[in-house]
Amino acid sequence: MAKIYYDNDADLNVLKGKKVAVIGYGIQGRGQSLNLRDSGIDVIVSELAGTPNYEQAKKDGFNPVPVEEAANQADVVQILTQDHVQAKVYRDNIAKYMTKGKTLIFSHGFNIRFKQIKPSKKIDVVMIAPKGPGALVRKMYEEGKGVPCLVAIFQDASGNALKTALAYAKGIGGTRAGVIQTTFEEETETDLFGEQAVLCGGVSELIKAGFDTLVGAGYQPEIAYFEVLHELKLITDLIQERGISGMRRGVSNTACYGDISRGPRIITERTRKEMQKLLKEIKSGKFAREWIRENEEGRPNFNKLLKEGDEHQIEKVGQSLRKMMPWMAK
């Protein structure tokens, strides 16, 4: 069974008298920064001047500073920029200030797992990864609740890395829900696999294949859209709330029987073998090297594939149908 930490296992006093720098004020950066501040922790925010995130930080009462200034002042540095820019930001603006006794925090292990960031052996390197978007991290905190987190220790130079990590987790509300112990390797590899095989890659291709099958058989694209895409949220909401078994008991018996008798014909042994190949590519670093190279070369394949996806018929149909549903507009 996984080791899970709660409020009683964490002490906010570990961060008392210390300054925490949050590098990047995106959705996750904003949620974590506000929660830390409300927990009584001294927070300094870094964001690029002139950007919407910079202006949002100012509206929230922070005085954003350059990365170098934040890293120099802080005892604890949390990097919440996008994965593909973290290594450059760390090398150019942070590394020189990570002196003995400081702590480096991540919320995703990509750059440590694939050695894009190689921190000094003199510092603690930990991960606190909320299992939810930053807006939810903030919302749950304001309601007196929390979003579950993962905690991992990569380097424990001080002997107190876990205490610091759990104090940070408590500061953002994570220990209210529970903080599960893991490793940088496990978090990174499972996260990438989930995105590629199921949550993004698997689901989007399954939706398009279903849509193409119905339209190819002569059914109206609008009807196909509703049946394979629009109603998906109803099912995923049930799965999230009740699990797969609960979802099956929350739909019609016809739908349930179709699920349990026909689903294995769609996700076949061949699909499972392809999933194994995806996982091997992740673990070996093949995917990471490909993604890093893609960014270095200006994202030619990324942009090509994204454009092709945008031009699929399901996107055109969806744009039209969503105008009929004003409750979906933000």
Provide a descriptive summary of the structure in words.
With 330 residues, the chain is of the alpha/beta class. The chain is 57% helix and 11% strand. The protein has 17 helices and eight strands. It has helices at 27-38, 52-59, 67-73, 83-94, 110-113, 134-142, 161-171, 174-177, 184-199, 201-216, 221-230, 232-248, 253-266, 269-284, 286-296, 300-310, 313-322, and strands spanning 4-5, 19-23, 42-46, 76-79, 103-106, 124-130, 149-155, 179-181. Strands 1-8-7-6-5-4-2-3 form an eight-stranded mixed beta sheet, with helices on both faces. β4 (76-79), α4 and β5 (103-106) form a beta-alpha-beta unit. The longest helix is centred in the last third of the chain and has 17 residues, at 232-248. The protein is globular and about 65 Å long. The two termini are 40 Å apart.
Summary of the model, kept short:
By secondary structure, this protein is of the alpha/beta class.
Based on Cα principal axes, name the global outline.
globular
Mean of residue pLDDT values: 97
- Biggest sheet, strands in spatial order? 1-8-7-6-5-4-2-3
Specify the biggest β-sheet.
Answer: 8 strands, mixed
Helix content: 55-70%
Q: What structural class results from the helix and strand content? A: alpha/beta
What is the first-to-last residue Cα distance? 40 Å
What's the alpha carbon Rg, rounded to whole Å?
22 Å
User: Topology as H/E string?
Assistant: EEHEHHEHEHEHEHHEHHHHHHHHH
Poorly predicted runs of 5 or more residues = none
Strand composition percent = 5-15%
Number of helices, counting only DSSP H or I runs of 4 residues or more: 17
Q: Total strand count, please?
A: 8
